[in-house]
């Protein structure tokens, strides 16, 4: 078997451990995630935000990632600094008008954009109504950096 090197980065690598752990703790406390899920969701929320600034598609987080995103938004000073550093501007929170559920194709396009931006995407967190939005059979083997 041949080992394959992965040059994908993590959202976690974009912030210091103190901030990362604070967002994780907030996500655990306020959204009921266990530590592992809170860490994965926080990683994905950071990758999501770092991709928004250059994305060419509408960016919509999954429900799991959105909880960690809300946790980070409430760290207002750090959130503002992160947005300015990685997106080039402050990213307003912009929920879907009228609430409503997430659209699979929008969440799928978001996960693909994050992959295309060189981030690891944790498929289990990118679902809509139980359907995987991060990967599908027709995309197996596709280089997402060439989105």
3D structure, described in words:
- This protein has a two-stranded antiparallel sheet.
- Helix content is 46%, strand content 3%.
- The protein has helices at 17-31, 35-52, 63-73, 76-86, 104-116, and strands spanning 127-128, 131-132.
- The protein is globular and about 35 Å long.
- The protein has 147 residues and is an all-alpha fold.
- It has five helices and two strands, in the order αααααββ.
- The protein has one domain (12-90, 105-146).
- The longest helix is centred in the N-terminal third of the chain and has 18 residues, at 35-52.
Q: In a nutshell, what does this entry contain?
A:
By secondary structure, this protein is mostly helical. It contains five helices and two strands, in the order αααααββ. It has one domain.
């Amino acid at each position: 078997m041949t080992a394959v090197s992965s040059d994908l980065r993590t959202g976690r690598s974009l912030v210091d451990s103190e901030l990362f752990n604070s967002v994780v703790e907030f996500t655990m406390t306020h959204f009921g995630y266990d530590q592992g899920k809170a860490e994965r969701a926080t990683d994905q929320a950071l990758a999501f935000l770092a991709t928004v600034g250059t994305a060419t598609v509408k960016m919509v987080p999954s429900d799991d990632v959105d909880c960690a995103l809300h946790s980070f938004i409430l760290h207002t000073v750090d959130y503002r600094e992160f947005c300015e550093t990685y997106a080039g501007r402050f990213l307003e929170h912009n929920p879907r008008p009228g609430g409503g559920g997430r659209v699979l194709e929008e969440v799928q396009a978001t996960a693909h954009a994050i992959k295309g931006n060189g981030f690891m995407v944790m498929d289990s967190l990118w679902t809509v109504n139980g359907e995987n939005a991060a990967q599908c059979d027709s995309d197996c083997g596709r280089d997402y950096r060439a989105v």
